[in-house]
Batch of 2 targets.
Target 1
Amino acid sequence: MAAVTIWNEFRHEREDDDVAAVYPDGIHATIADALAADHTVQTATLDEPEHGLTADVLESTDVLLWWGHEAHDEVADEIVERVRERVLEGMGFVPLHSSHYSKPFKRLMGTSCSLQYREDGASERLWVVDPGHPIADGLAESTELPKTEMYGEPFDVPEPDRLVFVSWFEGGEVFRSGCCYRRGNGRIFYFRPGHETYPIYENETVRRVLRNAVAWASPTEGSPRTFGKRD
Amino acid sequence: MAAVTIWNEFRHEREDDDVAAVYPDGIHATIADALAADHTVQTATLDEPEHGLTADVLESTDVLLWWGHEAHDEVADEIVERVRERVLEGMGFVPLHSSHYSKPFKRLMGTSCSLQYREDGASERLWVVDPGHPIADGLAESTELPKTEMYGEPFDVPEPDRLVFVSWFEGGEVFRSGCCYRRGNGRIFYFRPGHETYPIYENETVRRVLRNAVAWASPTEGSPRTFGKRD
Amino acid sequence: MAAVTIWNEFRHEREDDDVAAVYPDGIHATIADALAADHTVQTATLDEPEHGLTADVLESTDVLLWWGHEAHDEVADEIVERVRERVLEGMGFVPLHSSHYSKPFKRLMGTSCSLQYREDGASERLWVVDPGHPIADGLAESTELPKTEMYGEPFDVPEPDRLVFVSWFEGGEVFRSGCCYRRGNGRIFYFRPGHETYPIYENETVRRVLRNAVAWASPTEGSPRTFGKRD
Amino acid sequence: MAAVTIWNEFRHEREDDDVAAVYPDGIHATIADALAADHTVQTATLDEPEHGLTADVLESTDVLLWWGHEAHDEVADEIVERVRERVLEGMGFVPLHSSHYSKPFKRLMGTSCSLQYREDGASERLWVVDPGHPIADGLAESTELPKTEMYGEPFDVPEPDRLVFVSWFEGGEVFRSGCCYRRGNGRIFYFRPGHETYPIYENETVRRVLRNAVAWASPTEGSPRTFGKRD
């Protein structure tokens, strides 16, 4: 059981009726519902003071999930740096879907994290390419998501430590949809599926992946990270 | 300019009229034609003495391309071992298509190298996922191969050092179609496209990949590989 | 709690008084003692029928530790293949010290697994280079082993997925002493320390590493590994 | 032949007589001398306008070497970002020694890039652990550097794509001294040896490594990096 914080931009849901219809309490509430049976869950959103990510909140977070889209730039650099440092100390970090462009993910990767996209509501098949990975525990070999926004390669990220999922899109594209990294002591899992107007986070496979990812990204004890001058 | 040896099982072409119609002089001849302008090319086939892979031939080979399918088991273990040792010394190795099941590739990978397949002649799109890799030099972001045999994940190989291509298949599958490895001093590039009844090796993109792969897999000077007892 | 099988060649201990003095009940007994509080442990040795590694034994093994040295060649290829297949299915595999040259490790790596060595009883410092790795849990930043056999680079293995330890040797050499791999669904951890005439497996840090490695290498549920023809 | 730009902070040499005695024309001049026979070389320093790294200079640079130490913080963020973007486009980047803490390297890695150090002038042995890597071309299996500043693990960087060198230090430490990364289309090689008061860049092995690194890090043609909305 991990202490999870789900961060959501929480703007679309309050501004757009179509989004509100799918996620009436916010995307974070739907994700919280997927995790609550296995983990201790709290949420945080952009418009709270310090975006809800005070030093205390981060200090007590094992795994931080992140959903952002239209307001990446409004996240304060100071908070981004605070998140990054906690990841290096060991906090897990799971950026979702459009959070490939979130500041903390870009900062941790060092690359542009750019990709191609098409918002056409066509279908996606999420394939497990690493069936031995714990994030794939209990999944079928592939899962169909009937309506999604397409993300296509090239995806400008460092070569993943482990590639867990590759997506097939009806329109002819492919995408590395589940990418594992370690940075410092922290485990990072980028997971592509998810969108504000499709009920992706209601999908049982997606919910299982989120639970698995939290378990995988949880901090472990480790050994000393001592730096600086040595006698 | 590398010294290339193209190894071909060369059975289908002599046994099956459909294959002979596509590759009248053997798949090795078509591949040789793709490489001859840039490299010194010789060929070797299964039914020659020592399968054409004498110690002298391997000693003078910079990069070995391999095409096998129905007769993997007829390749003598002694020759497989000879190939493996030359790869560890630095010879490049480029197994093609159904050669995922060739003895030298399986021996170098350590895994089963199994996959899923469907011989339906449906279309494939070969996507570059690593546009900075020299094997992708000069390619478009994706290339359509109108009729292919499908290969699908999971592909039981070690996580590639670099993943260059991912294929999209009309029938709904994906595959890691271009996988780079180093073993010892040798560079290995598994490349999926290719089939005995579709003229894949006439495709200009595929031919460019083969030329790029030979350049990439060519041996470099290195430093001493000294093993054993040390004073 | 994992079901562990410790395999030992168990020849030195019966042939050489110096070894018997250090490991009177065999190296496997000492290792078993290090693991017994946390795991279910059984042992198997070379001179038992099927080397003690029947299909039933392997089927019920979560993690197999392996210690061999002078009799690698006496291990039957059929048993090696049985071990390899169980690893691909998910069994953890932890080859120790001179088992870099064991048949199952060489078979899973595909390389020569050669290295340099000097049996001088000089000291070693085992450094954690990946303090976030669970195999380093609870360790100090480095641990001194006062008398060891030196192993030096180059070590002819595939680039590890994660490098956990690097050893410093009094005589001037370095070695990648803790190397993590995945092959199929199985996790592999090569761990260098250990010798038949030095009581390395009595060292508390080494014992902690063995316990950590068993926990890390234990199978996880995964998703289907289905291969072959697809409709 | 690559177009190389050597960037040097160039403060120590003008402020400290001991440094000036070793590198009277600046560290950049000594490095330039090591490369000039094989490459086109220009230099740039901190106190020039835009630190000598105008858009034009970077645009025409194939590989950028970087030496900084006491004034990392004086490098303008705008220039750091310009360097990072050029690396993602394909420019090679070779940070040297204390440049592990340079802004462009930290920005590209995403981690703290911290380490341990001791300025004791004790000896270092630089071991090749990847003898097949082109950066090791022509080197001996190890090279002694008689007086160096020690850098010790843990080194807080992402797991390298390839680890080429590991250093042994007389005082008992080890360090991953040659680390290869790709970010976007750019190749990055961190190389540890080098110091302002020891004539490390006069050492023939070190000079050979610098030449090899420039050749390895030079841009290749690649395929399109097209991002954004797709029809």
Target 2
Amino acid sequence: MSTQEAYLAQVDHAISDAALDTIFRNARTMRHWQDKPVSPTLLMAIYDLMRWGPTETNITPARFHFVVSKEAKARLEPLLDESNRRQTMAAPATAIVGYDLDFASTLPKLAPRAAESLHAMLARDPEKARYMAMRSTGLQGGYFMVAARALGLDCGPMSGFDREGVDKEFFAGTQIKSYFLCNLGFGVPDSVRPRAARLGFDEVCKIL
Amino acid sequence: MSTQEAYLAQVDHAISDAALDTIFRNARTMRHWQDKPVSPTLLMAIYDLMRWGPTETNITPARFHFVVSKEAKARLEPLLDESNRRQTMAAPATAIVGYDLDFASTLPKLAPRAAESLHAMLARDPEKARYMAMRSTGLQGGYFMVAARALGLDCGPMSGFDREGVDKEFFAGTQIKSYFLCNLGFGVPDSVRPRAARLGFDEVCKIL
């Protein structure tokens, strides 16, 4: 038994080592895509899983617009950084992940006990609302990619795009702001770059 | 076969349904903790998994200080909102999750090809550096909680604390800023509140 298996054996309801490989250890950011569509059902399945992840006071501010059709792809293309265009046009689906600054309007459903006081506080302090929306949408973005990978998809997250342009083109008339993009599909095996380094535990963590 | 199982069957390397239950469907925010310690090895195992999750240009700005000892807990206690004190003092470990504004110093290791240009850009634009650090730390916070749950732990994320106070007490002399807290341990079964609602696919997502 390796060291890694030894510590996994200590816990009583861990998921399998193969599943940890799929969602973390072997998962790679993809830039080359097979010509294989992603069904609407599968996109719905990602949301169906990731929506259970925790957010502050259950505000769940993340919004997902999946760019799939040729027409929608054509609207997105000019707003991408040059280095992201080819991979995005080839991907079967691209999620525009945004945060909704108007998340307070959903609170009566999501957090009925806190809705009234939170609504009043957010109206007085839009900077606080933005901070909350961004922080929880970040968490939800993490859940989103894990869920996609858990369902057998590959992810290609990207930050190189014209955020204001995307907001204007895709989120006009709403208070949704784009946060990052994520290509989704089935990657070309062996097309990935050598894996970049990560920091060690002692460089990042402390036990106090 | 239920509808849910039917779409899972479409994909060829999804993780098991039981694993999806553990990391998403059955996972709940815990506020009551068993008197059962969390080993340093298990804390290291969380990091060992979550560090592989993608971040912008591999900057991996999240930092994790695990508050475990009585002495460290006593430093944290007065900085917590009243409603979070009791549960945090009872939890075997509390992660202070922060983002390092000085992430540029790690770029020669993490992103050698981009290090020089990114370092110069960030030095000119500290607001951009903060935005990047917060966005990727949000993603990493999501990976962190999924990894903890995948290893059999329960999570109790919290945002109610004195951020400036925590920065002063725990991150003095660094450029790390606290983002959220997360209690870790083994929750008391049946102690959770009824599950809060989530928004439906059509309220949150669009397929374009």
